[in-house]
Amino acid sequence: MKLEKRDIDIFLTLWIKNDRELWSELRDIQIKLIVDRIIKEKTYQDLAVEYKTTARKIKEIIEAILIKIDRNISSEIAKHLRIINAKLNARPDRPFETVDVFLN
Fold first, then answer.
1. Burial level of 73, CB count in 10 A (0-12/13-18/19+)?
2. Sign of CA dihedral 80, 81, 82, 83
């Protein structure tokens, strides 16, 4: 069975949309930035243009959001969001490949 990035994006979107704890800790703009960065895979530069600021400032904001998630929601969730963010930094053109899942 192959999991497409699209399937993972749908799952993450549903989680973000329905997690009450996340919504109680983060402001709307912070959630939108996480969605744009992690799910829509926008670069810091793309986000900077959209929000009329610098790529460095966007990177700092994303890192601050991840710290807030780590402290107030779940360090495990923050850890995995950081992994996704690192993959986006490493290969912005194609950070994720198709994932093969073998069912026994």
1. middle
2. positive
Of the candidates 7, 45, 50, 5, which has an alpha carbon nearest to the alpha carbon of residue 32?
50
Distances (CA, A) of 87 to 13, 17, 69, 74, 82: 18, 23, 19, 20, 9
pLDDT tens profile 51-103: 999 999 999 999 999 999 999 999 999 999 999 899 888 875 665 555 554 55
Residue type, 70: D
Greater model confidence, 15 or 92: 15
Q: Residue 60 has which token pair?
A: 């700092």
The whole-model pTM stands at 0.79
Q: Contact 65/30 with Cβ under 8 angstroms?
A: yes
| Polymer length in residues for the chain | 104
